[in-house]
Write a structure and sequence with these properties.
11 helices, 4 strands, 31% helix, globular, alpha/beta, 4-stranded parallel beta sheet, 419 residues
């Protein structure tokens, strides 16, 4: 695996360095937004000054890879489904993804803060296609390959956005809800021009995950208000709904970023503090104000929950369930999720990349494991955070319930009982 990773880094480094150069255009359409330019500039100056870059000291013990995928094979439907609410895993022919640097894989396998600038789309949780489960790469693609080895659209290697090996991963590092509609257009055009797929007849799983950069700057005006966030996501979903046939769209709930200020790698306290102020300043401002906010202003946690509530209202309204061959499902399991903590209250930093902000390879593996399991959990019973006791292994589709759960095929949730 190490040789594969090194090869990907070598193949990527030239284009990645070009993208983070001081001549990078700092527009909304640029691959890297202003925050990424600032990070690159800071780390490049350190390197030029000969400052030692701290190496990742936390051991990457990827315990999630110890969980064996032991689901029995479930064949595809007898005929290609015409209804999004009866699609089996083996019916999926295409994977695609929209989002920001998390979906682009920035931070995956990085060992220094500088390496976080290089995407690793091949191991991105929702669309990466490097290697296999048996080789320790847990992604939604690699799980789906257990049912359809010929699934298309996945990313391989540490590729930049415009490289063919990125597949149908159109995520843009630094992106916010404002650029999501453009990503939807890019995705549609990329799929339409791909001669290896049957655009109109192949079933697709599209995963949308956005909101970290919005929340990280939401304390500085109304640009990233819950309503504006919803409108940006809605613009992308509307476009996909209008133009993409035979698709199940996962909308992934955004994490709470409040704890970012406490994500510190041992021995990197000053560096983490500096990078936090560049990448995600709002948690730092809230920390420095002792958690107080101006009258009438939401805390970050309150704003994150409003983001979720706006998505829930939009998706549960049924606006995307008016065609039999299309649906959108809100996957809520990261809403209340935080990195695991040790008994002393500190966070397990093996889930965090060396920039003290992005998810590490270990976190991506957990994200993929959780997403698969939640897709096979009925709407109304999906948890708001991952509890290993509830999901000790992979959930397996069966002949009795062979399909991915949606708003229209999920059984009613159990009644609430007061205790």
């Amino acid at each position: 695996m190490l040789a594969r990773i090194l090869l990907c880094v070598v193949l990527t480094v030239a284009s990645a360095i070009a993208e983070v150069s001081v001549e990078t255009e700092l527009s909304d359409e640029a691959v890297y937004s202003k925050q990424w330019y600032e990070i690159a500039k800071t780390l490049r100056e350190d390197a030029e000054d000969g400052k030692e870059m701290p190496w990742m000291e936390v051991e990457q013990n990827i315990e999630i890879t110890d969980i064996v995928f032991d689901c029995p094979y479930l064949p595809p439907s007898a005929s290609v489904p015409i209804n999004a609410h009866s699609v089996r895993p083996a019916d999926i022919k295409i994977v695609a993804a929209l989002g920001d640097s998390i979906t682009a894989g920035n931070g995956v396998r990085a060992e220094t803060p500088l390496q976080v600038l290089f995407p690793n789309r091949g191991e991105s949780w929702s669309i990466g296609g490097d290697q296999s489960l048996e080789e320790g790469v847990i992604t939604l693609t690699n799980i789906l390959r257990k049912y359809n080895p010929d699934v298309k659209g996945f990313s391989i290697c540490g590729r930049t956005l415009d490289h063919p090996d990125s597949g149908f991963n159109v995520a843009v590092p630094g992106a916010t809800n404002r650029g999501l509609s453009d990503q939807a257009s890019d995705l549609i055009n990329t799929m339409l021009t791909n001669e290896e797929i049957d655009y109109h007849n192949d079933w697709k799983i599209i995963t949308l995950f956005i909101g970290g950069n919005d929340l990280c700057r939401s304390c500085r005006g109304d640009l990233f208000s819950p309503e504006n966030y919803r409108d940006g996501v809605k613009a992308a979903l509307d476009k996909i709904h209008t133009h993409v046939p035979r698709a199940i769209v996962n909308v992934q709930a955004m994490l709470d970023v409040t704890m970012v200020a406490d994500l510190i790698h041992p021995g990197m306290e000053a560096r983490c503090e500096e990078l936090h102020w560049i990448e995600c300043p709002c948690p730092m401002e809230e920390r420095d104000s002792n958690g107080t906010v101006a009258n009438g202003t939401l805390t970050l946690r309150e704003r994150q929950l409003e983001y979720y509530n706006e998505l829930e209202k939009l998706i549960s309204s049924g606006v995307y369930d008016n065609r039999s061959d299309f649906t959108v499902v809100l996957q809520p399991h990261l809403r209340d999720q935080a990195p695991p903590q040790f008994p002393n209250g500190t966070y397990d930093m093996s889930f965090i990349a060396p920039d003290c902000f992005h998810p590490s390879a270990k976190a991506h593996q957990a994200f993929a494991f959780m997403l698969w399991n939640i897709m096979l959990t009925p709407v109304g019973s999906k948890p708001f955070k991952w509890n290993p006791a509830d999901y000790p292994g992979y959930v397996c589709p069966t002949e009795a319930t062979p399909y991915f759960y949606t708003n229209l095929n999920s059984p009613p949730p159990p009644p609430f009982v007061k205790t």
